[in-house]
Amino acid sequence: MDDDEPVPTRGNKRRTTVVNLLRENLLVPETPDLSKETEKRFKHFAAEGLARRLDSRLSHGSLIAGRRAQVDSLLQTAWYKKRFYLSHFLEERYWYFVAGYFFIVVMLGASAFLLADRTLNIVDAIFQAASCVSQSGLSTINWSAQRTSIHIMSIFLMFMGSLPFLTTVPVMLRMLSFHKQWKQNRKRERMGLATKAEQAIAAEQDLEARALRKVLGIVYGHCFCCQFLGFLLFYFDGLYNENLLAVLAEKGVSLWWHAIYLSVSSFQNNGLTLTPDSLVMFSTRPVHLLTSAFLILAGMTCFPIFTRGIATVCLKFCREKSPSWEAYCFVLEHPRRCFTHMFPATHTFWLLLVV
């Protein structure tokens, strides 16, 4: 087939033609820096795995010599992703993975509720587990009258469905992929097989991996500090609330457990409490109300604002050109590449104005 001949745009004939072109090496980029093993893997993956992507991404179905640079770039990117097998699988089957995850967590939570309290029926157990995981906070039973073991399991379910945990799972998977790639690169360097192109890619991977570690530190540090601060404020304010102490004593709940549970529930935007009337009894306690409002905003609506703000502050305290400084710069320059809930400066500013 001539280079100037367009590929048919409909049916299986188009895809077959693209595969044939790939197998004939018409689209393999001329990169002398690639080793023979790397080039062999490159060609194999290009021939077997990229026909569908090329079929959907090349406009008008024209595959001519003048567009070879665009195709080469696409092939390099896709071949690079192929080496991260777990990430590639999750990318292709993401929604199935998420749906299966929530289903399994809800079913396990409902089973744990049934084992902890035999008087619960299966519908209430599933509903309460789904309420905890989804952060809806709805309840079909008297939640404050439940056993402490159920309250403990509900906190675990809140964490399993929380925004910080779910959004950092892709970050951890990417770090795992980078770590595997780093070990392969080190092995090739010791054997003297690493090319200049591979060394450049490895350096960029190392910088991005350090940036991802900073993101995890920011997110989980923010979560811990906010909830710990909420616990302290709830606890010390409760010491001077005789009405609260009397209600908790009647329920057999300690003040420190009330403070922990309310802090976690507020930060996760769940809404479940250990008091029978939710926060009605705190209508005259501004510390409880303001702390709850702060945790609600910090854990959900203002979460992107806090993450970027913390990264900016950390950058100010880092020595210029140090590894940490470079990592924070990478995070702030490529926020959505590192973390889905960290926005560019302009978008973060508009979110702050809206709030």
From TrEMBL:
- UniProt record, GO biological process: metal ion transport
Transmembrane as UniProt keyword: yes
Where does the protein principally reside?
membrane
Q: How is this protein annotated for GO cellular component? A: plasma membrane
Report the membrane topology from the UniProt record.
Multi-pass membrane protein
| Transmembrane intervals | 94-116, 150-173, 215-236, 287-306
Any Pfam family hit: TrkH
Gene Ontology molecular functions = monoatomic cation transmembrane transporter activity
**Protein name (database record):** Uncharacterized protein
